[in-house]
Write a structure and sequence with these properties.
Largest sheet: none
Distance between the termini: 35 Å
Radius of gyration: 24 Å
Structural class: mainly alpha
Number of helices: 10
Strand content: under 5%
Number of strands: 0
Shape: globular
Amino acid sequence: MRGEQAQRIVPETASRQRVGGTRRRLTQALPPLALLSALIAAWELIVWQLALPAWLLPPPSRVLTTLLSNLPILGEHVAATLTVTFPGFGLALVTGFALGVLIDASPLLRRAVYPLLVTSQTVPIVAIAPLLVVGFGFGMLPKVLVVALVTFFPIVVNTADGLQAADRDQRRLLEAMGASYWQLLRLLRLPAALPSIFTGIKVAITYSVIGAVLAEWIGASAGLGVYIARSLRAFRTDQVFVAALVTSLLTIVLFALVTLLERWIVSWRDEQ
């Protein structure tokens, strides 16, 4: 009897925990949603009260109408932007992770490269992007390089710094047992660095779409950057707001996917 009662209690406890977790998430989401709704309502009211022209500041209702009417066109531009975003981010991920490991493996390389990485962030990408177009033309390569340059830094820095976060006592124990650097990396340092590495990846993925839009602005035939440039020339401010909204939604979706991947990998690591 006690066993049967325990079997009934376990599912009931799990169900209560799921319900409690859902309620907590809803409670956390309500304040920002309420504030966002209030801001949108105030925006709509101000535009109508002041009778502002649509080319200066369109109301949210017009932005929504434009979004729905331009969905087929936006789909093509979103696909073009993602075609640039994914290869650029992938290039930054591979090269950034590899350089972060090399910086961690070589103190001399760390002293030589790390200051240059920090200094490179003081150079505006807007100044570099036209040079890439001049050097590589208007094809895919310069746009991919722009995205990679925008997303490269946080991956390198968080990888190099995260590899330093492993427990010293565990590291000394493995070294006393004769473990090589690469064995330490595989068994201890890389698993300990995963939270920091994923932090860099999440920062980079939020920059990737913006980098792609910037690259398309400079030279492309399709993409959200092209859509924004054409809308500005036509004084279609509502379309500019639509492009900004779509860019934000893409960034949020990509960030959420990386977060889900992080939870799965880190939980798998903890189980192991």
